[in-house]
Amino acid sequence: MKAQLGTDEGKHKFVLKTPKGTRDFGPKEMAIRERAFKAIISCFKRHGAEVIDTPVFELKETLTGKYGEDSKLIYDLKDQGGELLSLRYDLTVPFARYLAMNKITNIKRYHIAKVYRRDNPAMTRGRYREFYQCDFDIAGQFDPMIPDAERLKIVHEILSDLQLGDFVIKVNDRRILDGMFAVCGVPDSKFRTICSSVDKLDKVPWEEVRSEMVAEKGLSPEAADRIGEYVQLHGGLDLIEQLLQDPKLSQNKVAKEGLGDMKLLFEYLTLFGITGKISFDLSLARGLDYYTGVIFEAVLLQQDNEHLEEPLSVGSVAGGGRYDGLVGMFDAKGRKVPCVGVSIGIERIFSILEQRLEASEEKIRTTETQVLVASAQKKLLEERLKLISELWDAGIKAEMLYKKNPKLLNQLQYCEETGIPLVAIVGEQELKDGVVKLRIVATREEVNVRRESLVEEIRIRTSQC
Amino acid sequence: MKAQLGTDEGKHKFVLKTPKGTRDFGPKEMAIRERAFKAIISCFKRHGAEVIDTPVFELKETLTGKYGEDSKLIYDLKDQGGELLSLRYDLTVPFARYLAMNKITNIKRYHIAKVYRRDNPAMTRGRYREFYQCDFDIAGQFDPMIPDAERLKIVHEILSDLQLGDFVIKVNDRRILDGMFAVCGVPDSKFRTICSSVDKLDKVPWEEVRSEMVAEKGLSPEAADRIGEYVQLHGGLDLIEQLLQDPKLSQNKVAKEGLGDMKLLFEYLTLFGITGKISFDLSLARGLDYYTGVIFEAVLLQQDNEHLEEPLSVGSVAGGGRYDGLVGMFDAKGRKVPCVGVSIGIERIFSILEQRLEASEEKIRTTETQVLVASAQKKLLEERLKLISELWDAGIKAEMLYKKNPKLLNQLQYCEETGIPLVAIVGEQELKDGVVKLRIVATREEVNVRRESLVEEIRIRTSQC
Questions:
Q1: CB neighbours (10 Å) of residue A352?
Q2: Is A272's CB within 8 Å of B58's CB?
Q3: Could you give phi then psi for residue B368, rounded to 5 degrees?
Q4: Model's pTM, two decimal places?
Q5: Residue B307 per-residue DSSP state
Q6: Cα(A353)–Cα(A163) distance, integer angstroms
Q7: For chain B: N or C, fewer Cβ within 10 A?
Q8: A GO molecular-function term, please (chains A, B) (predicted)?
């Protein structure tokens, strides 16, 4: 969409748009967004989380060396003198910086804020360059797998609560992956880069991933093929038991540790009664460098959803992992604070909720106004101003049209359009009688209410709002 | 504060801090912030506002030529290929861009978000480089001064509601200023730059401002002295009447318009009953280029506040103005949409609320947890996990310690520290009897509750939370 400066202001043409990969949220989108946030925040609070906030940018060096191959997606600020800054890429690294800086060794917090990635946007699939993350993290030295289990319970609660349809939560462990790479003959130096290749398996077929490993990353075909056998495996406790017997894996120390914890995790998830939606999946790798233990990713399953015209491919809606080393990277003495986190990918969830609302008949209000202060005749602006001022001071949500002499019809139409349930009408007669005519928009019923009891009457009639 | 990467990770030293002029919000600060936002948002909703959100950065050219001398404070992003971007400097220009882009000619919206200015921070006075603005704007073609009056009512409601102490709302009109400059002999070309000089009068004495006008900006000493006489004036309706009789000003068309509207504004404010805190002040100029009509600024008055150790000089806490030309600058055909806005400078308000809380005895909770699920003996982790899962599924806000066998004393201490009002204790005997021991932390009273009625019991006992 092109636009030109008003002739009086200047000459040069410019494009009238939001930056690539970003969007505005209008009142309707915001109403949907607030709904989703409400569900997520109430879940986080249900689990006893505190809330924190950090700046949108960090010192560039704070983000350096935390994101592996994704580091190229970081937005840098222009050097205008002073510190070199970058926009945050996620909420996890700022959280770790916050813990180290304030010497906090024990906290359970959530943080909902926008993060920034110079990625190729796919807006219809809910992938943006500016997008919200809803993070819940548990930091501290605790007995194994208890926080890890609660975190998956949280994802299960939120996805169920938002009614996004069927989903599965894939889990794996970086230690199992590393052990697997070791027994497959991947040199230590190649662990992370081979890990990023495996991470692509949810988007591209094994054959492509294999050729990337061999051709681009110089892995031996034999090693690649051995990996190929493992990454096909997924299941539950049965698979864990099977791998604990695996002649090669069972001989590898880290793999054994990981499998032992995975077994414990599944026992706790059984007590939570949510194993039905959990899948231990050896192809799950996660891109980021800083994970050290259990990792997970929640994906919505394709289905014929009567709410949607055509089913939407949204992929992962939540993910996270354990990162026991990250805080230590910021600490002078390298003191570690074990952390486990979950991040809800809210933009993709918005896309679904928006599409669903489009399809549905539901008309969603964008204001909470209880009453419109209207006038029946001309020359009553002063009276309207006096009345609405009384209502505001009493805490009533009230609006009026910004015209000296609005037509009553226009005032009633405004209520129909915006869903305002009540109209308080002042007229000469009402003023004489010390009453206000209260009109119920839905039923068109009208009652005279004594001025002094108007506030109470409005409260009663809108108590459900 | 300095820190070094953990020896295993790397060698180079780096600084562990947030960027200059920014800060983290910990759980306690967030609790205060949420309180202030609650008061502000409920006021905005009381006045029927919708809510929108826009990206944190805009195309650089979108911000160009909107902020006059302040443009140098804009943060630019590094050119990493693609569009040239800048962080938003305020929420007003993005709002105007949003209106023009979506061809919206009529909306009442609020927007609460962070804005960015490469200013000299004065954190103790609540001036940051990243800070929140809480904006409420009314866009549309309406009868004069009705939205302008409501906007000042909103500021009055919010500052009263937050109990920040005594305040005054200074108002003026760009047309009165321009008319004044004209009759004082300021050449048209110098209006805006002289305006920025006048704007400094709240921080520096007239003599300095005068010499800046004459020495730096080449204004004639006579003109400067004539301005000096006017900018000392402040008052109410009386002053407006007096200036309407002023031999010079009354001959100037724009000044006359401005004074006429100012009179009307004061009539409406009288109906709202808030003129007691409004001062028509000819020294009020406001820095920004885009204002075209009534401008205002709300200032807290110094006082001995028993809540504060020493009174805090916070200055302006809200400001705004009418900007009828801004949207037109973004429209292809230069179509104008009259707008009037208010912006609450929340950071300064935080400073006061924080200081006040420090001084007060009040202990502020940072979570909403209703109950801690605890165990009296060892080997009850599974039972705790089962119970807490039941409570979460029933919507109860519940926590547990992430230990296999926590001491009961530690569990009770955790409640004392965090303010959790209830403890649900599982023990072997209780399990046999099918009950849970519910302990009220404040009174240390303990009651056995049948498991099936536990949720209801917790709801009743925490209903005020």
A1: 23
A2: no
A3: -115, 15
A4: 0.90
A5: T
A6: 9
A7: N
A8: histidine-tRNA ligase activity
Q: Looking at beta carbons, which residues of chain A come within 8 Å of B292?
A: none
B98 is in an annotated binding site: no
The fold of the A27-359 domain, in CATH, is: BirA Bifunctional Protein; domain 2 (3.30.930)
Show the low-confidence residues of chain A (pLDDT under 70): 1-14, 303-314, 464-465
Interface test with B, best of A15, A402, A458, A459 (most B CBs within 10 A): A402
Q: Is B254 exposed, middle or buried (0-12, 13-18, 19+ CB in 10 A)?
A: middle
Residues of chain A contacting residue B24, judged by C-beta atoms under 8 Å apart: 52-55, 98, 101-102
CB A262 within 8 A of CB A268: no
pLDDT tens string A133-144:
999 999 999 999
What are the structural domain ranges in chain A?
27-359, 371-463
CB A323 within 8 A of CB A341: yes
Pairing verdict, β B294-300 and A13-15:
unpaired
> Choosing among B78, B391, B426, which should be mutated to test the A contact, i.e. which has the most A CBs within 10 A?
B78
Which residue, among A127, A21, A432, has the nearest Cα to B57 in the 3D structure?
A: A21
Residues 338-367 of A with CB under 8 A from B: 366-367
* Number of residues assigned to chain B: 465
Q: Which chain A residues have a beta carbon less than 8 Å from that of B79?
A: 78
The answer to whether the Cβ–Cβ distance between B58 and A18 falls below 8 Å is yes
Work out the minimum CA distance from B417 to partner chain A, whole angstroms.
13
B47 token code pair: 């006045």
A278-281 and A167-173 strand pairing = parallel
CATH 3.50.50.60 fits B371-463, yes or no: no
Tokens representing residue A357 in the block: 């609302």
| Three-state secondary structure call for residue B112 | strand
- Residues pairing with B299 in the sheet: B168, B316
Query: What would the DSSP string read from start to end of B357-419?
Result: HHHS-----S----EEEEESSSS-HHHHHHHHHHHHHTT--EE--S-SS--HHHHHHHHHHHT
Contact B389/A47, CB-based, under 8 Å?
no
Q: B219: which residues sit within 8 A by CB, 6+ positions away? A: B186, B190, B194, B213
Provide the pLDDT for residue A311: 41
Q: Which of residues 322-341 of B touch A (CB under 8 A)?
A: 325, 328-332, 334, 336
CA-nearest of B300, B437, B458 to B371 is B458
Do A27-359 and A371-463 come out as alike in CATH topology? no
Nearest CA in chain B to A25: B53
Contact map slice: B 144-173 vs A, CB within 8 A: 146-147, 149, 153, 157
Where is pLDDT greater, at B345 or A97? A97
Q: Which residues contact B46 (CB under 8 A, 6 or more apart)?
A: A392, A395, A396, A397, A398, B157
Start-to-end Cα distance in chain B: 39
The single-letter DSSP state of residue B248 is T
Amino acid identity of B247? Answer: P
pLDDT in tens, B182-222: 999 999 999 989 998 998 888 889 999 999 999 999 999 99
Cβ contact B80–A80 (<8 Å): no
Question: Could you tell me which residue, B275 or B65, shows the higher pLDDT?
Answer: B275
